[in-house]
């Protein structure tokens, strides 16, 4: 929370413009996806610097050249999305829990992203959303899904990756991109405003030919193991 306050204070004179622009970009019929995403990508870099956070990014060469893939990072906290947004130049959208849908400002950002929301207590609604994600990925949209389902509260230790989160990618027959996040939890969850360096690692993707004969739980295990090993190797 302290770093969020720092970001707000150090961006104080820019905030009216940021808010105006984000509210304007909510008109998705007027602004196309690349335009909306480019603005969020640009201001994220600025805001992260205001918060004294530097991001070391590795493996962007692993990102598929063609759109229509799903990013699967470990989940450490609210800063995760900012770390990926700064380092991922191509537009993506998110699948989030429905509890955050109507929070002021986040609501507008989610609208700009055209995010989708899952009610974890409603299986039918969740299945419908994931079918929509499958359709959009086939059409060339990139998505970000946290396969743990919730943030890990144990620093750089990851939780179990849920097989169900991979079914939309499997049905779309699209590339699955593991992403390892390191020290992102320190940004907003450690009551510190000290200079901070976090890491984003885009790992080698799994293509349909790699996983076509696997079950979702097997894919989840492979992806989680790649993420876990990367965190262990670079968390020094």
CATH evolutionary superfamily: Glycerol-3-phosphate (1)-acyltransferase
What is the structural class? alpha/beta
Sequence of secondary-structure elements? HHHEEHEHEHEHEHEHH
Number of discrete helical segments: 10
Number of domains: 1
- Secondary-structure arrangement, i.e. CATH architecture: 3-Layer(aba) Sandwich
User: Which percent range fits the helix content?
Assistant: 40-55%
Q: What can you tell me about this protein's structure?
A:
Strands 1-7-6-2-5-3-4 form a 7-stranded mixed sheet, with helices on both faces. The chain has helices at residues 2-10, 15-25, 33-50, 79-87, 106-113, 123-138, 167-172, 185-188, 208-211, 216-234; strands spanning 53-58, 70-73, 93-97, 116-118, 143-144, 176-182, 196-202. The mean pLDDT is 94. It is globular. It has a single domain, classed as Glycerol-3-phosphate (1)-acyltransferase (3-Layer(aba) Sandwich). Strand 3, helix 5 and strand 4 form a beta-alpha-beta unit. Helix content is 44%, strand content 14%. It has 236 residues and is of the alpha/beta class. The longest helix is centred in the C-terminal third of the chain and has 19 residues, at 216-234. The protein has 10 helices and 7 strands.
Question: How is this fold's topology laid out?
Answer:
Elements: H1 2-10, H2 15-25, H3 33-50, E1 53-58, E2 70-73, H4 79-87, E3 93-97, H5 106-113, E4 116-118, H6 123-138, E5 143-144, H7 167-172, E6 176-182, H8 185-188, E7 196-202, H9 208-211, H10 216-234
Parallel strand pairs: 1-7, 2-5, 2-6, 3-4, 3-5
Antiparallel strand pairs: 6-7
């Amino acid at each position: 929370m302290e770093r969020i306050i720092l970001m707000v204070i150090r961006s104080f004179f820019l905030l009216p413009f940021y808010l105006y622009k984000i509210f304007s970009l909510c008109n998705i019929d007027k602004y196309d996806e690349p335009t909306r995403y480019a603005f969020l990508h640009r201001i994220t870099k600025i805001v992260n610097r205001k918060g004294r956070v530097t991001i070391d990014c590795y493996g962007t060469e692993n990102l598929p050249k063609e759109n229509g893939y799903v990013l699967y990072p470990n989940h450490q906290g609210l800063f995760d999305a900012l770390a990926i947004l700064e380092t991922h130049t191509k537009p993506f959208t998110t699948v989030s829990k429905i509890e955050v849908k109507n929070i002021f400002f986040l609501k507008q950002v989610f609208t700009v992203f055209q995010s989708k929301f899952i009610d974890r207590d409603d299986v039918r609604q969740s299945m419908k959303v994931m079918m929509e994600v499958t359709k959009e990925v086939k059409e060339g949209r990139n998505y970000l899904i946290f396969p743990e389902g919730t943030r890990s509260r144990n620093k750089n230790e990851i939780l179990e990756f849920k097989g169900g989160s991979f079914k939309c990618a499997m049905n779309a027959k699209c590339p699955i991109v593991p992403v390892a996040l390191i020290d992102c939890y320190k940004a907003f969850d450690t009551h510190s405003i000290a200079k901070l360096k976090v890491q984003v690692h885009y790992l080698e993707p799994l293509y349909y030919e790699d996983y076509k004969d696997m079950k979702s739980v097997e894919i989840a295990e492979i992806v989680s193991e790649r993420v876990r090993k990367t965190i262990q190797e670079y968390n020094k």
